[in-house]
Design a protein that fits this description.
A hairpin with a 3-residue loop joins strand 11 (about 375) and strand 12. The chain has 16 helices and 13 strands. Helices cover about 35% and strands about 15% of the residues. The termini are far apart. The chain folds into 3 domains: about 5-210 and about 280-345, Alkaline Phosphatase, subunit A, CATH 3.40.720.10; about 225-275, no CATH class; about 355-445, 2-Layer Sandwich (Arylsulfatase, C-terminal domain). The radius of gyration is 21 Å and the shape is globular. The strands form 2 sheets. Strands 1, 2, 3, 4, 5, 6, 7, 8 and 9 form a 9-stranded mixed sheet that branches. Strands 10-11-12-13 form a 4-stranded antiparallel sheet, with helices on one face. It is α/β, with parallel strands linked by helices.
């Protein structure tokens, strides 16, 4: 008897923090996420590999650490082997819905079908209410014609808080625009689930990385009026396309300088940290602690797990739940099924690194650049240092200092030594085999994208 393979629906929500998906003290309204958690498995300490999209998602879809592959936001190639290839080889129909960033276009290039929606271009930014939600629903309807499918979706709405729908601009949906936008996204998750057979579909929800949530309704560098104007740039002023992003970045830089002077007099050091940018010199949990939900097929009971798990563990877990052997793959991750079954489970440190900071519009970004800071996170400690210098590390005691306010590295040289030993072991075992050179065409597209965004 031939047993049909279960379907797989993977949803990654850009910039979604773990602490906004779980807990009684939240003001955000997420009934659909709450229902998925109450009927599935939720991991409270899921750690992203990086605070930038490409580096972190590359880890999810290869089950390899960036310390192994060297993959980042800007050097991911079409020839990179991912679990999409593996599931396709095992009879799955593979489909995707991603923004039209070169990273995603390379990631989705080998799928059976894909849809790349417009993002980060002036002519017409797309979001759930602007057609992407309906596109996802239509794809789910069409996938019913396939025996077994894997559908991966990346949602960008939480990245663009200035585009909050008017009907969700109400305090009942959250105390700030981040929470209100998440409430809006949750409403669409409910619509998607109406078209999914949970008995035969494994649903996985996570994020690429977390986010610093603004203290006020807008970030210090956000100028909603100008951003909304530039969103329709080609329709309003065609000549803005090559200049609009540079103009916006300059205005945001000036706005931030002025607003920061005022905010420093009103907020604590911890609160002001929310005004930081990712891809710099820190990897606070706000940016790397992400939600991870497994529900539907193969998840037989509701369970909340506090063990530290990693992005690189997601697809090995999917493979075991769907009864596919992935031993042909070289992977750094491990299946979380033993945790789900309350069996013996060895917890490994999570390797983490900062993304590549593009800085302001005057800087150039080398597609082969790497983040400046690397480190390890365990359930008890977080250890950080510069990529090329281990002499000035940072160490946080996560048990006694969950907000990571005090560096205890000087008082704890033995812990620093042990963490550096573990980090060095990971770095020394790396294999750059996944870091294929970009083709000339891919290199040109990457440069064109960086130029359009104003980084070249």
């Amino acid at each position: 008897m031939v047993v049909e393979k279960p379907n797989i629906f993977i949803i990654t929500i850009d910039s979604l923090r773990s602490d906004h998906c779980f807990g009684d003290d939240r003001t955000v309204k997420t009934p659909n996420i709450d229902n998925l958690i109450s009927n599935g498995a939720y991991f409270t300490q899921a750690i992203s590999s990086a605070d930038q999209t490409g580096t972190s998602l590359a880890s999810i879809y290869t089950a390899l650490s960036p310390s192994t592959t060297g993959l980042t936001h800007f050097n991911f190639s079409k020839s990179t082997k991912t679990y999409f290839n593996y599931f396709k080889e095992n009879g799955y129909y593979t489909s995707g819905c991603f923004p039209d960033h070169d990273f995603f276009m390379n990631l989705g290039s080998n799928l059976d079908d894909n849809y790349f929606y417009i993002y980060n271009k002036l002519e017409s930014w797309k979001n759930l209410s602007g057609g992407i939600g309906d596109t996802i629903i239509n794809k789910l309807k069409l996938l019913k014609q396939q025996k077994s499918w894997l559908f991966s979706v990346h949602i960008m709405d939480l990245h663009n808080l200035f585009a909050l729908p008017k009907e969700y601009d109400d305090e009942k949906y959250g105390k700030n625009n981040y929470e209100k936008m998440l409430s809006f996204i949750d409403s669409w998750l409910g619509k998607f689930l109406e078209h999914v057979d949970l008995k035969n579909t494994l649903i996985v929800i996570s994020s690429d990385h977390g986010s610093y949530i603004p203290l006020t309704q807008t970030n210090p560098d956000e100028i909603p009026t100008i951003q909304k104007f530039l969103k329709s740039g080609k329709q309003v002023a065609p000549k803005l396309e090559p200049l609009g992003i540079k103009f916006l970045l300059l205005m945001r830089k000036l706005a931030k300088e002025i607003r920061m002077k005022k905010l420093k007099n009103s907020y604590s050091e911890y609160e002001l940290r929310s005004l930081s940018n990712r891809g710099k010199s820190e990897l606070f949990d706000e940016t790397i602690r992400v939600p991870l939900i497994f529900t539907g097929f193969g998840i037989n009971e509701s369970v909340t797990l506090d063990n530290l798990v990693r992005h690189i563990d997601i697809f090995p877990t999917i493979s075991e739940i769907t009864h596919l052997e992935d031993n042909k793959f070289q992977i750094d991750g491990q299946s979380l099924v033993p945790l789900l079954k309350n069996q013996k489970f060895e917890e490994f440190p999570a390797y983490i690194e900062t993304g590549v900071s593009a800085g302001d519009f005057s800087e150039k970004v080398n597609p082969d650049s790497k983040g400046n800071v690397i480190g390890l996170r365990t359930s008890s400690y977080k250890y950080l240092r510069k990529r090329d210098n281990s002499e000035t590390p940072t160490l946080y005691d996560l048990k006694n200092d969950p907000k990571e306010m005090k560096d205890i590295s000087l008082e704890n040289p033995e812990i620093v030594k042990e963490m550096e030993k573990k980090l060095s072991k990971i770095l020394n075992s790396k294999d750059q085999s996944q870091t294929d050179e970009l083709t000339k065409d891919e290199q040109q597209k990457a440069e064109d994208m960086l130029r359009k965004l104003g980084y070249i």
